[in-house]
Write the structure tokens for this entry.
Amino acid sequence: MEKALPLPGEAVEALRNAVAALGLDVCHLEWKAGRRSTLLLTIDRPEGVSLGDCEEASRAASRVLDPLEEKLPAYVLEVASPGLDRPLWTIADCVRFTGRRVLVQTRRPVEGTSRIKGPLESVEGDLLTVLDEDRKHRYTVSFGDVKSARLVPEF
């Protein structure tokens, strides 16, 4: 079960700044509550992320978070790259990956389908246009109607 971050806004900003100082971007920050709560920090940069980058980001994040230990519920910090099938969490992610193949799943059917796979042709405002490879049909979807969107790895 996911829930809102238990971090104060200034801690989130300090975390982003500490990771940025390493030449990395925080592309997603997520709190997964449960028996073993997890703070998932997903980092990226245009040329990709190495295991060493994840280790450095973990140390930088710990320097920010350790002083808050008594104010936070118990958690495990996980630092990861977004992976080859990277989720597109924001409109900015969609703009960055325009032209790449994506898999979009919608909250409700768009022209009879909830699953669209193909090149992300354009992003205008909050509207994504994807050319479905199987149906040879162009779909326009509001980002607010997107349940999930991720890159399709190309080998």
Observations:
- The mean pLDDT is 92.
- The radius of gyration is 18 Å.
- The longest strand covers residues 113-124.
